[in-house]
Amino acid sequence: MSSRSPASDDRTWLNWAMRRIEADYTRSADTHLIPVDMPALADIALYFKDESSHPTGSLKHRLARSLFLYGLSNGWIGDGMTIVEASSGSTAVSEAYFARMLRLPFVAVMPRRTAPEKIAAIEFQGGRCHLVDKPGEVYGAAQALADELGGHYMDQFTYAERATDWRGNNNIAESIFAQMQREPCPIPRWIVCGAGTGGTSATIGRFVRFNRHDTRVCVPDPEASVFHRHWADPSVILSEDAPSRVEGIGRPRVEPSFVPSVVDRMIAVPDVASIAAARVLSRRLGRLCGGSTGTNLWACALIASEMAQADERGSIVSILCDHGDRYRSSYFDDAWLTAHALDTAPWEARLDAFFETGRLAQA
At what angle do helices 156-163 and 199-210 cross, to 10 degrees? Predict the structure, then answer.
């Protein structure tokens, strides 16, 4: 059976493309929900949903699939069209996978400082990388490339929150609640997830409200990001700080997909704390986890400490966003940390102490 796309009318190609994506989804299993042992906190359970087990290794696999289905359904993507995306890496890896599946050229517009492992993963999937000097330049460069090539700019930062059906239909929130059904505290007290586009926090926040769950949504955010500032003061829409070292989350501008009204709490996390937490969790799980997962863990530890002090019982669910193999040359390289003046040792010690005592000590 030929794997080439049909060369007939647009609707024939569209039907072929939809079937290709649906078949790929049918072949895929759901991601695991991993309990993280916290012996000092007998009444609080912590879980991480392992999104690194997707075929493209990250949470963004879900988003990429949704964005392609959304673009196809809207008639924005056609046979032979070049797909262009602005990304910090992981979304581009996943979109390159789906573009390759549909025999479409793909170009990722990314900051030059993007981890080389991510660039290699995009190129492995047949994509091409267009690097820019400043993170804020990705939007205009991506649109310009799409215009020049007669292609389609996917624009995850605008469409992430609307491309996914937040009421259900196999989204990440529905999956979390289904997997929690037989746990001691099946309705999470908190779900903790960082924001890059804001699409995941919007999906989860809407889902818990739609289903009337007594769950709160916390978004941990790099200190340099604008999201936590905008959540506290809607008039703040830009950050002039140097870009965060944590790839995948935090932005210099408020993205259209970020919906602050469905977020119950935001926690600003120093980059060094995120990287330290990624290293600690990696040791405890016996596998490498990315920096944004570390951001999540730091917020989970803070929330768990507060719950324990208030004698609260319950569960916390967070997300293992991507595999740490993509950061071997950065977060897990001591020479890289030294070169960037990031001393993770005291932060790792604080988090190790949290697991032993159930309290996250203040700096």
Answer: 20
Model confidence over 289-337: pLDDT tens digits?
Answer: 999 999 999 999 999 999 999 999 999 999 999 999 999 999 999 999 9
What is the residue whose two structure tokens read 């905008």?
A: 230
Beta bridge partners of 309: none
Tokens of 7: 């060369």
Three-state secondary structure call for residue 132: strand
Single-letter code of the amino acid located at 149: L
Q: Please give the Cα distance from 225 to 230 (Å, whole number).
A: 9
Phi, psi (deg, nearest 5) at residue 266: -125, 145
CA pair distance 259, 266, nearest whole angstrom:
12
Two tokens, residue 283:
């040791």
CA distance 222 to 270: 6
CA angle 264, 267, 269 (to 5 degrees): 160
Cα–Cα distance measured from residue 276 to residue 214, given in angstroms and rounded to the nearest whole number: 31
Sign of CA dihedral 34, 162, 239, 362: negative
- Find how far residue 1's CA is from the centre of its chain: 36
**pLDDT tens readout for residues 75-134:** 999 999 999 999 988 999 999 999 999 999 999 999 999 999 999 999 999 999 999 999
Q: What is the set of domains in the chain, with CATH numbers?
A: 27-54+165-357 (3.40.50.1100), 60-160 (3.40.50.1100)
* Residue whose token pair is 């506290």: 232
Cα maximum dimension of the chain: 65
AA identity, residue 162? R
pTM reported for the whole predicted model: 0.94
